[in-house]
């Protein structure tokens, strides 16, 4: 089974955790050591292939062990199939949207990232990432229905997620200053839960303000208010 990571060691570690094996129990083949790229362009993750070694067992224990190995192998094959199916599903959806794109998948621990490459980045991202976020919800729902594994699905294009995180962190600090200077609570625009978490985390150590989420999905939003104000919301 193939695994990816920022470095070959990260990819191997991710694979061992996924397979629940030690390094001594697998054969490692380095397919690519990855590429850092220049200024974020041309970056490619490291790729390795892990093959579980066959273990010698006592003659009387051979059959049960073989059955366990077969079941584990089937689960790995099913997981790979689900990831491929999701990739084809996303390719089909974007094609119907009129967006030409290629997709790469990176599996790291409990996170699966589908990276899109396209000349129509704006159309795929949408205003404030709404289109990309909607596709991400569809992708998460697709994989959740296929597999019982608890993994997070992330869709990204042109490092948008990293840039969006920086934007939200800057916004959080600005809104916190406004809340303190004006002595009034500040309400942000509705955003998905994973973006609200970025706001909460950015202000977690700021003792002068407190944050909480309010409203109902999909219109749930973050409120930032002076620490001495009465909290009527819910985290």
Give a short overview.
The chain has 235 residues and is of the alpha+beta class. Helices cover 43% and strands 22% of the residues. Helix 2 runs antiparallel to helix 4 (130-146) and helix 5 (160-182) crosses helix 6.
Looking at CATH, which topology of the largest domain would you report? GMP Synthetase, Chain A, domain 3
Structural class, by secondary structure, is alpha+beta
> How many DSSP E strands?
9
Distance between the termini: 40 Å
The backbone outline, from C-alpha atoms, is globular
Strand order of the largest sheet: 1-3-2
What's the architecture of the largest domain, going by CATH?
2-Layer Sandwich
**Helix percentage:** 40-55%
Main sheet characteristics = 3 strands, antiparallel
Mean pLDDT: 84
Poorly predicted sequence stretches spanning 5 or more consecutive residues: 37-42, 56-62, 231-235
Number of discrete domains: 3
Count of separate DSSP helical elements: 6
Which CATH class of the largest domain?
Alpha Beta
Order of helices and strands: EHEEHEEHHEHEHEE
CATH superfamily of the largest domain: K homology (KH) domain
Q: Which range does the strand content fall in?
A: 15-25%
